[in-house]
Amino acid sequence: MGLVLVDNQKVNEAEGAYPLLPHERTWSSRTLFLVSISTSVATWCFLIGGYIGNYLNAKMGVAALTAGMMIGMLLVSLAVIPATAKYGIDSVTSTKPLFGNRGWIIALLLQYLSVIGWNSILLIFFAKAAARMLIITGIISESQSSMLISSLAIAAVITIWLLLKSGSKAVKNISAIIAILIILVGIWMLYMMVNKFGFQAIAAAQPPYASHSTIWNYTTGIEIGLVSLIAWWPYVGGIVRIVPKASQTTLPSMLGLGFPVAVMSTIGLLSVLLIGVPDPTIWMIELGGMIYGSIVLAFIAFANFGSAVIGVYISCIGLRNLTIMQKQSWNTVTLLTLVPICFVSVMIPDLFFAKFGHFLTLLGVFFAPLIGIQIIDYFVFRKKQLSMKDLYDSSSSSVYTFWKGWNPASLISLTCGFATYFYLLNPLTYGSNTPYQYTTATLPSMGVGALVYWIITRFVVIPLGRGGYKSKQH
Amino acid sequence: MEAKSAKNNLLIEERLEAISLKENQGGDLSSWDYVCYVLLGVIFPGILLIWGWF
């Protein structure tokens, strides 16, 4: 069922980059919802919330992070879901009409790097949580922790590789269990914090690194929420394509990928405000006691596996767009995605952990203009129609060839979007320029990218007859 | 090998032809979907931001 021969190998189409046909799109709305929760909720939430807790108190922090995340989820949904859910294609493939039938490599690179980053954080967190549990329970000594963290990260990579042998089935099966566990653990952790400190202490807690400008702090909270969620761009296409109808994806994606991240990030936010560290693995045993604390630590470690399995799966689907990857076995492709993750997790865990905030804002730099461009291209210029034959035609006869496979309009627009972001907010120093405090950096970057793309496409690309905008689409 | 590759291409072509038919596609988002997006992605965050600020 759903098999296509690719150079002497049988490949389930859900593990390939070609569009899925109705009988291959087997996930229900409920499955997508559970997979979305399992994807989005992991220990990165604590770090995201922790960053916001540096600048905002509990009330403003919860409002800013939740609002930023829901707006971010809306934008990424509008960019990716209409095309991917309609045609059963993944996020990377959906960029061929805007980047060109060679230029889409940019999207693949962005996806690959972001998945490596996100999943490295997960494995580092997993290894740290597991090592802490073993130290606290007296199984190993503190001096052995460094070696143990590296060993656990390698063990996690091997486990993920083994789990992914069954492809999307693994994603579906593992998600159902993890999603429910995560919700329960999250509720329990919030209860523990409220029970221990009380509402008054939570309301009175002040952020440690707030600037003198309240509006700057508030906008930065929204910005962190926004960039965290637009970074789901690679993930969204890969999972909504397995659901039969586009309209079945709306609520599961908004409520599964957006809202739960906000709820779990609140734990990191409160952790920073009340305890001074975002990482609950540090205080969970102390707060919950040895037995409950250890159980929760184990759940947290386990929850990361769900997100990592889905992240690697999504990245592999993107890689399958490369002809050379279509010839490789599924196991080889998963291995190629896992090797760099393993490298970061084992070789530079502390450095990457410390620079996670920079990683987040860099994601905003790259994905914000891309999302703006994609929305304009699909809704305004393509009128919600793509040509499937041209999408998978890498020759010069494809309407998505533009100029030798590249669309200068999207490259110039992306550059303008990058420049806008860097002007408003330097992702490395967090130095900002007006009007950042009123607009965020992500939204103007997205708007500038979209506007420049519209101008160049409308006045240059279409008049020159490139990109298939005038031809009748299928 | 060439014969297999040709068969493979044919299957891919069939797949692309099939997905080009409207009945094999996932359809567009409905008006109700856009209402949900506006409610969850615009109005709800807007209310939250006002609540958080005051």
Features:
heterodimer, A: 474 residues, Hydantoin permease, 2 strands, 70% helix, 2% strand, disordered N terminus, B: 54 residues
How does this structure look, described?
The complex is a heterodimer of chains A (about 475) and B (about 55). Chain A is mainly α. Chain A has a single domain (about 5-355), classed as Hydantoin permease. Chain A is about 70% helix and about 0% strand. Chain A has helices at about 30-40, 45-55, 60-85, 95-100, 105-135, 145-165, 170-205, 215-230, 235-240, 250-275, 280-290, 290-320, 325, 330-345, 350-355, 355-380, 390, 410-425, 435-440, 440-460; strands spanning about 5, 10. Chain A has a two-stranded antiparallel sheet. In chain A, helix 1 (about 30-40) crosses helix 7 and helix 6 runs antiparallel to helix 14 (about 330-345). Chain A is globular and about 70 Å long. Chain B has one domain (about 1-55). Chain B has about 55 residues and is mainly alpha-helical. The model of chain B has no long low-confidence stretch (mean pLDDT about 85). Chain B is built from 2 helices and no strands. Chain B has helices at about 1-20, 30-54.
